[in-house]
Design brief:
single chain, 340 residues, alpha+beta, eight-stranded antiparallel beta sheet, 9 helices, 16 strands, 32% helix, binds flavin-adenine dinucleotide, binds magnesium ion
Length: 340
């Protein structure tokens, strides 16, 4: 047998030591964190060969909330628009301009089922605050109050032109139906600049999956069973970067005299949407779209909702009031129902 040349052996030793020095043999380390932001729970699991990025991601979400999206924080861009003079164009940040263009498209395509101008109606219902008045009493809005709030709503009362927005008729913006999806988009962009090799991060009902698990298997994302929120309806099996949002009548609601008033409002009636659904989950390649579409689909019902989502290349899982599950065609390869 021929002996291996010395120079060849030396190169192998050199390569191995280089690998150790440069860290090419390092395995990703996993980090997890749970925090509160955007009025909801944020959960992170990420795998990285670099530093722990969880605190940076929380900071990113809080900055987005405080600087741009929250209508509740007076310094934010959206809060500023809500106190701007009606009918006067206001210059938007580049990000908000792009986002509002897309959201207006969802409004248009959904026939107004999705509408970011429902701020007055949302404040009137105050479902987030359990519909409590300042006196601590539960107040269900009267028909007159609802009609008044609807006069100050309507996506056609927004004009987007030359990077500016004009709000007409005292319209108040509320991005509650898309903000967490926007946060997921920003997280996806941020992760690409880091050493993170895989992550699954949820901002309330919106989730981003990114990269790979260390063992290379797909991410498993659970969907809550709306009949019993302590159980799973099923799981989504997803490889790589995906955006998932769920809207349901069990998320935020009040019950008065046996009637459930939930937080997803039908802009046509001014009342909580009654489309025969308990929940909708949307999967697509954009967080803002998955979030906006989940709300739009909930208002439209499963048949119209599925068509709308398909126009945006999104896959859907609908659960109706009878407990039936309706899956879009592509979802059949992704969704696995939990065993009873
Ligand atoms: P989604 O279906 O995605 O959205 C429903 C929400 O969108 C409603 O709550 C309402 O705000 C709005 N909406 C209702 N009907 C429609 C419709 N037809 N079209 C468009 N929009 C509609 N909650 C708090 O309690 N305290 C906070 O401080 C707080 N801060 C927030 C800050 C930001 C930046 C964001 C984005 C949200 C904040 N929220 C806060 C709200 C909360 O986190 C969720 O947005 C809310 O619970 C609904 O989210 P969802 O995903 O369950 O439902
Ligand atoms: Mg939504």
């Amino acid at each position: 047998m021929k002996s291996v040349p010395k120079i060849f052996l030396k190169s192998i030793v050199l390569l191995l030591s280089l690998c150790i020095l440069t860290g090419c043999s390092r395995q990703p380390v996993s980090y997890s964190a749970t925090d509160i932001g955007m009025g909801t729970v944020i959960s992170q699991t990420l795998y990285t060969t670099g530093e722990d990025e969880t605190a940076n991601i929380i900071a990113l979400i809080r900055k987005l909330e405080e600087d741009e999206l929250s209508r509740r924080i007076s310094g934010s861009e959206v809060a500023g628009l809500n106190v701007s003079a009606p009918g006067v164009p206001v210059k938007l940040s580049e990000e908000l301009w792009e986002e509002l263009l897309l959201l207006q498209e969802v409004s248009l395509q959904s026939g107004g089922a999705f509408d970011i101008t429902l701020g007055s109606l949302i404040v009137l219902w105050n479902i987030d605050g359990q519909a409590l008045t300042d006196n601590g009493e539960i107040h269900i809005p009267t028909e007159e109050e609802i009609a008044g709030a609807l006069e100050r709503s309507g996506y056609e009362k927004i004009l987007l032109q030359d990077g500016c927005i004009t709000l007409k008729d005292g319209v108040q913006l509320d991005l509650g139906a898309a903000g967490k999806g926007i946060a997921c988009d920003r997280i996806g962009d941020y992760l690409k600049e880091t050493d993170v090799s895989g992550a699954v991060i949820s901002v309330g009902g919106s989730i981003v999956t990114y990269g790979k698990k260390p063992d290379g298997s797909p991410w498993q994302v659970g969907i809550v069973n709306p009949e019993d929120t302590s159980r799973l309806l099923g799981t989504l099996s997803l490889a790589g970067e995906w955006y998932i949002s769920t809207s349901g009548d069990y998320e935020r609601y009040i019950e008065v005299d046996g009637i459930r008033y939930h937080h997803i409002l039908d802009p046509a009636s001014g009342y909580p949407a009654e489309s025969g659904l308990r929940s909708v989950t949307v999967v697509c390649n954009s967080g803002i779209l998955s979030d906006a579409l989940s709300t739009a689909c909930f208002v439209l019902g499963w048949e119209e909702g599925m068509k709308l989502a398909a126009r945006f290349g999104a896959e859907t899982v609908f659960v109706d009031r009878e407990g039936n599950i309706h899956l879009s065609e592509g979802m059949k390869d992704i969704f696995k129902q939990a065993e009873e």
